[in-house]
Amino acid sequence: MGSAQKDEFERLSDGLQQRGIGIDEVLRAIKSQHIETPSWGYGDSGTRFKVFGAPGAARNVYEKLDDAAFIHSLTGVAPSVALHIPWDKTDDWDGLAVYAAQRGLSIGAINPNLFQDDIYKFGSLCHTDAEIRGQAVQHCLECVEIMDKTGSRDLSLWLADGTNYAGQDDIRARKRNLEAALTEIVAAMPGDRRLLIEYKFFEPAFYHTDLADWGMAANLARKLGPQAKVLVDTGHHAPGTNVEHIVAFLVDEGLLGGFHFNSRKYADDDLIVGTTNPFELFLIYNELVAAEQDSEPEVAACVRDVAYMIDQSHNVEPKLEAMLQSVLNCQSAYAKALIVDREALARRRSEHDVLGAYRVLTDAFDTDVRPLLAQARIELGLAPDPMAAFSDSPYPAQVAAERGMARGGGGGYPGA
Ligand code: RM4
Ligand code: MN
Ligand code: MN
């Protein structure tokens, strides 16, 4: 260990111990954090206006796994990769699972695609036409089989379904269609597999979205039984929404299944998590750490099963560096949440010391946790500064040279 790092860690650790924070426990938690990266974050992607080609962007699922393994080798906390079907489809799932395992990775959530086929113009699982609903269900069942072959635990479902004009369709009929379709899908899933239900209040439909908010997702999850949980994509809320409140509520109900982390300013921006809103990310983790320590075993168990996934689409930022930054931002938010002085917080709350309680949180948030993270990485046998290790690594230049400019071009607009 470098002596400057050692001094900084010891200074921080002394200060934390004086606040009654068990440093070993904090280090253990930091080392066992798990962030899942998305395959689609490694390939070419952008906005609906234009997809700019990025040199070295992964061209297929194997290259995506190579990139994910690189990010995991730098951070030690990103050992699983979410797949999107059919974007990542292969005819050799067993081979893919082996390829992943050889790189120290496992296959994470499987994401069906119910929005890019012509038949889905007016919806998928909510469609009025039973035949189209049937095809959408079949696609999900195919994904359940893929989960079986790849050892994936979670089916992560996002629907683009909705309408654009008042009167366009029967909202209640669509709601019933959705419930019936999901019942069929859950029935086909082995008991140890989960359905994660994602919600979003707008886009691509704007008048009404069939799964618009966490309440609708939670209501469905309850009806579908213990295998169904809610997935919170941090970018899927109206501006000003208190996301940490939603997180606290869902975890307390045992209904929180996972996250799609990203950062938003205006819409479903899919920017790097924790960039525009680091305090929000910290407050989300703060709720989870608090719930982890809850005396209700069900609440603590719910947090333990949460899938922490990144869902981002990098446009102007270099893709590998962007993914690394995302994982680092999650690590930093989690570390800060771990060092919240929970006893002091409980005391201030019981005294109705409104701002004292707030300052317990900002004391943690304002702490420079980098020496703590560096120590955890050293204990994991990794470089203490992953961004420096990234800069020193030949990998990004190597894949840029090997893969070249994959595709780029295109966008959702005519002539784009
Ligand atoms: C959605 C949602 C889903 C993602 C699609 C591509 O907005 O966040 O999770 O799979 O985009
Ligand atoms: Mn998402
Ligand atoms: Mn999204």
Low-confidence stretches: none
Distance between the termini: 52 Å
Which small molecules are bound?
beta-L-rhamnopyranose, manganese (II) ion
| Helix-strand pattern | HHEHEHEHEEHEEHEHEHHEHHHHHH
Count the strands? 10
- How large, in whole angstroms, is the Cα Rg? 22 Å
Mind describing the biggest β-sheet? Answer: 5 strands, parallel
Strand content: 5-15%
Structure report:
With 416 residues, the protein is α/β, with parallel strands linked by helices. It contains 16 helices and 10 strands. Strand 8, helix 8 and strand 9 form a beta-alpha-beta unit. Helix 2 crosses helix 14, helix 5 runs parallel beside helix 6 and helix 9 crosses helix 10. The protein is globular and about 65 Å long. The N and C termini lie far apart (52 Å). Bound molecules: beta-L-rhamnopyranose and manganese (II) ion (2 copies).
Quick summary:
The protein is α/β, with parallel strands linked by helices and 416 residues long. Helices cover 48% and strands 11% of the residues.
Which secondary structure elements does this structure contain, and how are they paired or packed?
Layout: H1 3-18, H2 23-31, E1 36-38, H3 61-75, E2 80-85, H4 93-102, E3 106-112, H5 130-150, E4 154-157, E5 162-163, H6 171-187, E6 194-198, E7 208-209, H7 214-224, E8 228-233, H8 243-252, E9 256-261, H9 278-292, H10 297-304, E10 307-310, H11 319-338, H12 342-350, H13 354-365, H14 370-379, H15 386-392, H16 395-403
Parallel strand pairs: 1-2, 2-3, 4-6, 6-8, 8-9, 9-10
Antiparallel strand pairs: 5-7
Helix pairs in contact: 1-14, 2-14, 3-11, 5-6, 8-9, 9-10, 9-11, 12-13
One manganese (II) ion binds next to loops.
